[in-house]
Amino acid sequence: MNSLPGNTPLSPDEHAGLIPSLATQDELNQWERENIIAARAWALNRRRLKSSDLFTEAYLRELHRRMFSDTWKWAGAYRRSAKNRGVPAHEILDRIALLLRNMQHWIEQATYDVDEIAVRGHHELVVIHPFANGNNRHARLYADVIAAKFGRDEFSWGRESMIAADTVRDAYLQALRAADRHEMLELVKFARS
């Protein structure tokens, strides 16, 4: 499982954290999808959630936990192993804190428009890669929540699922690589495509 380009390989300990007994990647994808749909409803229907709460480490972890709690025992917990992408595990807390402070500042000061703030946050979460798995999906939902909370529509992210290797997934990965070079426009455009 997890053999597509851009996917994060799991360590044996992380893989052992799989809750349901699933035999194929397709079964895992469907199981996670149902968990994510419920988390999306929770995240986007939190009317009482203060804007400042979105910029807390506790919220980020809770969002991941809700997205994957029926799938992985370690849902919502930061990874402790090295991955093919992401900062060293011991840097995760500091990098998350800096990202959240920056995002809150960008909102308060209107440094960028809301779409760009949400997409910049998404990109930095992908760069940090705080969790053992689900980082891109988590980062996309987090960007959707930021956009919605600040009066924008949720992003369309190419209007397709990115589970399978296809042109939409390739365009997303290409836009992420451009953002790695500090060229954010392609990722902002992709998020709204």
Which keywords apply here?
mainly alpha; 193 residues
Describe this structure in words.
The protein is mainly alpha-helical. It has one domain (12-191): Fic-like fold (Orthogonal Bundle), CATH 1.10.3290.10. It is 54% helix and 0% strand. The chain contains eight helices and no strands. The mean pLDDT is 91.
Backbone structural class:
mainly alpha
Number of domains: 1
Which CATH architecture would you pick?
A: Orthogonal Bundle
Stretches where pLDDT is under 50 for at least 5 consecutive residues are none
Which topology does CATH recognise?
Fic-like fold
Question: SSE string, helix = H, strand = E?
Answer: HHHHHHHH
CATH superfamily: Fido-like domain
Strand content: under 5%
Approximate shape: globular
Mean pLDDT, to the nearest integer, reads 91
Indicate the topology.
Blueprint: H1 12-15, H2 25-44, H3 57-68, H4 92-109, H5 114-128, H6 135-149, H7 167-180, H8 185-191
Summarize the structure.
The protein has about 190 residues and is mainly alpha-helical. It is about 55% helix and about 0% strand.
